[in-house]
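Incident log entry.

Two folding requests arrived from the same account within the same minute. Monitoring flagged them as a possible duplicate submission, but the sequences differ. Recording both here for audit purposes.

Request one:
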Amino acid sequence: MPIRIKLARSPKEIDDALWLRHEVFVIEDGKFGGKPVPGHRLVDHFDAFPSVYHVVAYEHTEPVATMRLVKDSDAGLPVDELYDFTDYRRLAVADLPSLGRDWAERSAPVFGSAGMLAIRGPWRRRRDVIRAMFRMAATVCQGYGASHVVVVVNYETAGMYRRLGFSELCEKIWNEEIGNFVIPLAGTTQQFIGWALGDLPDTALSSFQDSFERLVLRSGEVVFNEGDIGEHAYVVESGEIRISRKRDGDQELTLAHLGRGHLFGELALLDDLPRAASATALVDCELMTLDRRSFEHQLHEHPERARRLFKVFAARMRSMDELAMVLAFAHPSQRLEFALEAARKQAAPDRSEPSVLVFRGGPRELALMAAVDEQLTRDYLETLAAGGRVSYSERHISFSGGRTAAA
């Protein structure tokens, strides 16, 4: 079942985060004496501050993981109770000129901390969920305006934080309360975001990154079904998504294969109409999602963010009009040419040979896209392959040098 990772906003979601901490730290791990506390909620005074943020992961409605993020205030940060960050706070001023124009003009950095990572036992081996939790944490830190993030972690997990862009501030130190060695680490939010988003292609929703949530799926799991009422748009962070719709009873027509950086489902941000197609994970996937409420709030606060998205809407509608005309009136060979060109546009560079574009689908997928007989599609591909225009297998179609079928 897909796992949704979001910023807790409602009282119920915040309560789920506090319950999760108690369930993991006290009940499962036996910390804090291993005895349930009244109310089965693990809380400290920082949870009362307006500058605290809880990231929560749900499998359907069941809370499975949480993390707390705190923006610095006069009361300090939770990690200050475990390590003295005074020297790092002073030295961090030197980072500001490298963080961009907005920070170069400031005289003091803004700090945040990450901690209270609690993952219930059955989900602790889900590295994809843990990775998505930290990516969500990075965008939250960016959203609330932190220039630097500090953490204190069990020394066994320090390697993971180094991979996220953090640097150790000292050797491991013993903490009596935790009963383990800990290591303080720190880094800029820019480094954290660099790890989280990496080389993700720019999309029409890139300016909404500070409002994204995340969805983690296993191969074969459904993002949404044709006919569902949607409230989210999606960007593929990793993996591959198939967009399809029903045709002639149970037959499915493949509309698109989407990979890293592709946007889909965006019309749900504007209307309450049913989904016109289904979206399914072809492999394990991680998606970034934007819900309609956050979208509308951001448009009110930053109306300039809408321009690129509306251009996408217009282009998508023109493309669908063209597809409808082709499927309704074109000869099968013309439909195949149209579908192959669509496949080429969806293809991604081969990792071992970047000059070759690879579409993650074979003859059957192309036949569904073109709404023609599969054997006719195989004959068509065989002719193109003989002429050196494409190569194909049951699962891939490759285009050398990005050439089209008509080239």
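Request two (distinct sequence, not a duplicate):
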Amino acid sequence: MEHSSPLIDGVGLADRTRKSRWPARLDLTQSATGLVLVLFMWGHMFFVSSILVSKDAMWTITKLFEGYFFFGASYTWIVSMVVALVIALIVTHALLAVRKFPINYYQFKTFRGHMRMIDHEDTTLWFWQVFTGFALFFLASVHLYIMLTRSDRIGPFESADRVWSEHLWPLYILLLLAVELHGGIGLYRLAVKWGWFTGNDANATRHRLKMLKWAITVFFLVLGFATLAAYIKIGIEHQGHYGERYVPSRLQALPQAVAPTDGIDTRKSV
């Protein structure tokens, strides 16, 4: 008669199997949060770049997210709640990703040695993903804290003042480079890891994905720098009126027109 091992029968196997699934679950969570953050980043870039269309277009996008066109008043706490959710996603993603970072100089030196010896492009991309991710710990936290606590200071003049008069443009240059490189590499690695768009030739698929990854990165970098340049230009022109809020052209013609403020309906005469 065959006898079952305690590891095979009863609780033993269940415990061992359950524990072995956790790395996969953590990897799936890391991938999911990373994907959501990349998609959010792209959407955010398109919304912010509305300043390239006009100041009124950027003001309209801002007020849309504040609920102005739904509730008849601007509620900036809605933006703060979205920012808080993004912070939670970033913290979750970072805590899961840091598991794979070199934790001391010896591990880092060993990895660098292997990277030079192997000379593989995907390994180099992973290094830059780690480097930009580490940079984002510091760069993104400044921007997110400002957006969380000063969500009422978003607009054509308000954002331009922050970029230029409050001297945050160097931060945004570094943040733009780090976030676009990190997000683009991360999305490429997700596609390879989970087998998205897999064809008959794995090497050809990787080559196409890399070309697409660099095309997307270049596109968003060009869009981002053009947008930042527009805010700098507006900030320079507006620095003599620092702190003044933007009033859209259609409201400027109204008597005693003011821009919508938090919880106040200013559309009665519009």
